[in-house]
Amino acid sequence: MSTISTTDYRSVYHFSPKEKWMNDPNGMVYFQGEYHLFYQYHPYGNTWGPMHWGHAVTKDLYTWEELPVALAPDEHGMIFSGSAVVDWDNTSGFFDEEPGLVAIFTHHMEVPNDQPVQRQSIAYSKDKGRTWNKYEGNPVLQHEAFVDFRDPKVFWHEQTKAWVMIIACGQTVCLYRSPNLKEWTFASEFGAGIGSHDGVWECPDLFPLAVDEDKQQEKWVMLVSIGADPAFKEGSRTQYFTGNFNGSTFAPDEDSLTVRWLDHGRDNYAGVSWSDIPAEDGRRLFMGWMSNWMYANQTPTEGYRGVMTIPRELRLETIHEKITLVQCPARELEQARTPKLSLYNVNAKEAQAYLGTLELESYEMEAIWASEQPVEFILRCSEKEQTVIGLDASKQVVYVDRSRSGIADFHEHFQGRHTANIQTQNREQHLRIYVDASSVEVFANDGQAVITDLIYPAAEAKGISMACVHDDLIFSSLQIYELCGGR
Length: 487
Ligand code: FRU
Description:
Layout: E1 20-31, E2 34-42, E3 52-58, E4 64-71, E5 78-87, E6 100-109, E7 117-125, E8 133-134, E9 150-157, E10 162-168, E11 173-178, E12 185-190, E13 201-211, E14 214-226, E15 237-245, E16 250-252, E17 269-273, E18 285-289, E19 304-305, E20 312-319, E21 322-329, E22 337-347, H1 348-355, E23 363-369, E24 375-381, E25 387-392, E26 397-401, E27 417-421, E28 429-436, E29 439-444, E30 449-454, E31 463-467, E32 474-483
Parallel strand pairs: 1-19
Antiparallel strand pairs: 1-2, 2-3, 3-4, 5-6, 6-7, 7-8, 9-10, 10-11, 11-12, 13-14, 14-15, 15-16, 17-18, 18-20, 20-21, 22-32, 23-28, 23-32, 24-25, 24-31, 25-26, 26-27, 28-29, 29-30
The protein binds beta-D-fructofuranose.
GO molecular function: sucrose alpha-glucosidase activity
Organism: Paenibacillus sp. AN1007
InterPro entries: ConA-like_dom_sf (IPR013320), Glyco_hydro_32 (IPR001362), Glyco_hydro_32_AS (IPR018053), Glyco_hydro_32_C (IPR013189), Glyco_hydro_32_N (IPR013148), Glyco_hydro_beta-prop_sf (IPR023296)
């Protein structure tokens, strides 16, 4: 008789819905002490289906409260991806005394024997996102030529005092402007002949960031996710551009003439940033869907399917003279820590002996060392399974190898090793690794490169060890914290 599965790969500190299918994060907005997460949700199935907006909130970025579905399909179709903003000055006229939330999303309508129709609509909430009213004038924006016309991300552009929408249009993005979120005027199109066109463009975002923390030097960052195409074994991925934006037109930097990936793993897709983070906080917080359209419908979870990345802070830094998007875990996650191992100035042999005593499933590991020697950590391991995370300073690479990480037979391209180039000269090497029931997220050398990968190890594969290092390699710091969450 078969035994009952001991794990459903349920993450401890990452958000996943209690049941059923989830994909993209939507409508991420901070309002009155809560970070809202809406998400592409199919409440009646564990695979993609008629899309609703699911809803969850968090106050600390690791304990999530799931709320009832926010938006359901209607006469205009399914509710595809989009964004939400706080209408502080009641530009929309939807609100009375208090400011409220406005969601801007794609209505996707299936048409028998024809192409589907994608149009943009809005809805508003006067009760902190708990209930929503769809605008009676929906849809508010349509296009005659684009079949793929979706995923509006809206922000207030203070310099030109207008709402700006960036929206995916097949193989480009378009920018629109509005005084009131209801009437939209075309401003510009971007993307022809630049960046990756390996798949349909989806889920764009556009926001300013200081370069090297210098507020005088600001650049705009554009995120564009590109859908899976069977010709590319990487599946769906997210690219970014840096440049200047004047309220209407985005002009890319020279650095952006070659393709630049947000993440070098396989499982960080459709991510965008939170709107309305208070100015005194000042961070640009990001979260992605931790999956890949190549196999998203086949991952081996039961009862639910879909999980988000950890919330991350995005920054711009000059690395090798290029303005580069770097990511680090949102600092709130430090509050979820329970220290399990804390070593300073320890050699590899001693460190390995300590690691061998640990068994952990959901944790953070931070290692710092100054050496050209390659270092490999072997996580979520048992006799049969292991996930290998390595940094080789002499080769200037970081990698995750999930070839033997557990269940992988649901897709031919799931197994494999994912590598990123990093700058390693004249510095200590630094790995921050977040491990959960079914994922690893690796931040190398202060977030210069990130690798996000799903893994499906057996519940008992909890071992931790190290390999390929000289016994006398010294870790100036090696820390392990168990991480708790809201579940
Ligand atoms: C991206 C995406 C979006 C679309 C949504 C549908 O993953 O394809 O472009 O709005 O998912 O669920």
